[in-house]
Design goal:
About 30% of the residues lie in helices and about 15% in strands. It is an alpha/beta fold and about 425 residues long. It is globular and about 70 Å long.
Length: about 425
């Protein structure tokens, strides 16, 4: 099947996802706790520290529900091609085939890292219970504590198990609101531009450092949560200096939102000021229409941005490379069968990528299921996504998986050294 007049790739057409912007989605996260804005940074109260990190975890969220069956194709199952006559990725175009799976051809920039064993793909992973709502699935995924009424994200629980309580330990590359995974009692920090993590007005035009002295005088003895938060913010800004001084390598990345965000993340890591957990987003994966082929459509654009940005990031870590592990995941997958708009509707199981330090590369699937070619067919989940994250947490940090993922029935998958 061919399409002779492809129109430009559509913006997300799911009403729920289109209504909820990145800022609006997580706006509620800031309501329950104190945040202090300093310049373009947001911090929650806690003492600052500049101790270098032993391990760093970067979590890349592919917002909108990426289609794992396009990213990592189960090309030996004939149902895949029967169910997707218009948008299936041709077998002869796939990369790194192993007799079961192959990578989308636009993943080529990552092939050197794959071939050297630094990337693992875990398929048929996802939430323990299917959830087709973007908002609800993201909340469940990032809380990672089914049935709990306590609003604390899994990354915040991870930070709680790592010695220290510096806002520099957890960093969100983005606007003034942290994602649900970061929200909780442990202090974290957020900025969309790490070069501007500073006290507003404390610059070369400030006479005799008057701006900072006046703020110190105003808040120095205030015995309130806000006062403590302001003092913590000043301390964190001072400690963040090596990051502002680190080289800006943005030009080496794709000129896209993800490319710019990962350039910021690498700069934070190379600054080596103690950041141990970072979060980054890539949007526009909600492809109900115009997934497309290898010649046109939204999929090739998103995969291209993802692969080129990640390759630039992995090449940009310098002497911090041996510390950094990155996990890429999405809230849920897409249906097996394409719809009448050259797209895919909300599904269930998906693929997760883990790359970098401590990774034993290759394809992993705990009993990858046979696909079904029916209207509502999903890729079933055979691996609880929390077990993928738990393998990373336990191997890269001296933290109990039970404290980060309460109630999880642990099953190691073997992709971490």
């Amino acid at each position: 099947m061919t399409r002779t007049s492809p129109r430009p790739a559509a913006s997300p057409c799911c009403d729920e996802f289109a209504r909820v912007s990145r800022r609006g989605l997580f706006g509620a996260a800031a309501v329950a706790g104190l945040s202090t804005t300093i310049g373009s940074a947001v911090l929650t109260a806690g003492p600052a520290s500049a101790a270098p990190a032993d391990s760093v975890l970067v979590v890349l969220s592919m917002r909108g529900a990426a289609d794992g069956l396009s990213l990592v194709v189960p090309y030996t199952d004939p149902v895949y091609y029967q169910a997707r006559p218009g948008i299936a990725v041709p077998k002869n175009a796939l990369l790194a085939t192993n007799g079961t799976f192959g990578l989308h051809p636009r993943m080529e920039p990552l092939l050197p890292f794959w071939n050297s064993g630094r990337i693992a793909a875990v398929h048929a992973a996802g939430l323990p219970v299917a959830n087709r709502s973007h908002f609800s699935a993201m909340e469940a995924l990032e809380d990672a504590d089914p049935g709990s009424t306590t609003r604390v994200g899994w990354l915040n629980r991870l930070l709680g198990g790592i010695p220290g309580s510096s806002p520099l330990q957890g960093f969100n590359i983005g606007g003034g609101v942290v994602p649900t995974a970061m929200f909780g009692p442990q202090p974290v920090m957020a900025s969309g531009d790490v070069s501007r993590v500073l006290v507003a007005g404390d610059d070369e035009y400030d006479v005799a450092a008057g701006r900072r002295r006046s703020l110190d005088t105003l808040w120095g003895d205030v015995a309130t949560s806000y006062g403590r938060g302001m003092r913590t913010a000043f301390s964190a800004v001072d400690t963040f200096g090596p990051v502002r001084g680190a080289a800006d390598t943005t030009a080496a990345y794709p000129d896209t939102d993800l490319g710019k965000a990962l350039a910021q993340a690498a700069r934070v890591i190379r600054g080596n000021v103690g950041v141990q957990v970072l979060t980054v987003d890539q949007g526009d994966w909600d492809m109900h229409t115009d997934v497309g082929t290898l010649e046109w459509g939204a999929m090739i654009d998103n995969v291209d941005e993802l692969a080129r940005s990640l390759a630039a990031f992995l090449n940009d870590l310098g002497d911090q490379t041996s510390k950094v592990t990155l996990v890429a995941l999405s809230e849920f997958g897409r249906r097996v069968t394409e719809n009448s708009s050259w797209g895919l509707d909300h599904g269930y199981g998906n693929v997760m990528f883990v790359m970098g330090a401590g990774v034993r590369g290759g394809y992993y699937a705990d009993g990858f299921p046979a696909l079904s070619n029916t209207l509502d067919a999903d890729l079933p989940v055979t691996t609880d996504y929390r077990n993928v994250l738990a393998d990373v947490v336990t191997r890269r940090f001296d933290v109990s998986s039970a404290s980060v993922f309460p109630g999880l029935s642990r099953k190691s998958l073997g992709f971490m050294l």
